[in-house]
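Chapter summary example.
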Amino acid sequence: MSNLVHMRIRWRFVLPVVALLLFIGVTHHSLTVNHTWRYFYWSSIRLDPKPRQSQISAPCNDKGEGCDDWEPLSIDIYPGFLARSLMLTGFPAFLISTLIISGLSRLGVSEVTAFFVSMPVLMLAWYYVLGRLVEYWSARNLLIPHWPLAAGISSLIAAVNVDSEIFRAVAAAVCFPLMVYECVLYRRTSNRAPRIFWSLIPSEIGLMATWLALNVARFYTYEPESERIWTWHERLIRVQDVLAWIIGILAATVLAWTLFYFARWLIKHLFTKKPSAA
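The structure predicted for these 278 residues follows.
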């Protein structure tokens, strides 16, 4: 009985499995609902199964020529609660997958194939990282000092699932200072190398909050009739694109760093000889 009480949950395995099950659920829903003759939509993400054909096909013109194989570039699909939560908590995996898909599509590789090959692997890796974080904090009784990170992530999840730009602006305004405070805590309590590693995560969440705040500003500057306001709108889009690349680089760095530590741990346990019992 005492062993059961002291048994710790292996979050490094629980979180990846739960995320993968949610991914399968959203995929099943997308297969039954979000599809057209030309594109496949995973929730609100449009995937082109034949990108090379899209590159060489002529657009539909005003005279109606070449419109037989034409379909609108985008369809308004509002992702559900599970899809939005999965996209937010697994944002680094989705962002890196987008970069992979974009690169392979230029070579003519199906975006559907690239998505369903890269996403499960990236999600398993990312949620494994989150699971290791939870285990690390739990084993060292560090969950309480990490409340700013939990509160910031929760505010972003709530912002994604509430259809209110004002609420999203408030959530971003709350999340960003919490991430700054979390980085200060890491600087005080961690050694140099772990400090850099742990600081990457709140830094990434803070940049996501900044991206969300810019998206709110982008919403309120959508005024094509006003040249001055529209100029600011386009500047916000460019800044968001730069932030997306920075967030992707940080996510890739966290994953690479984690894989390095995992490989070192695995080698240590596989090749370190245990002392034989006398």
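To summarize the output: The two ends are 31 Å apart (CA to CA).
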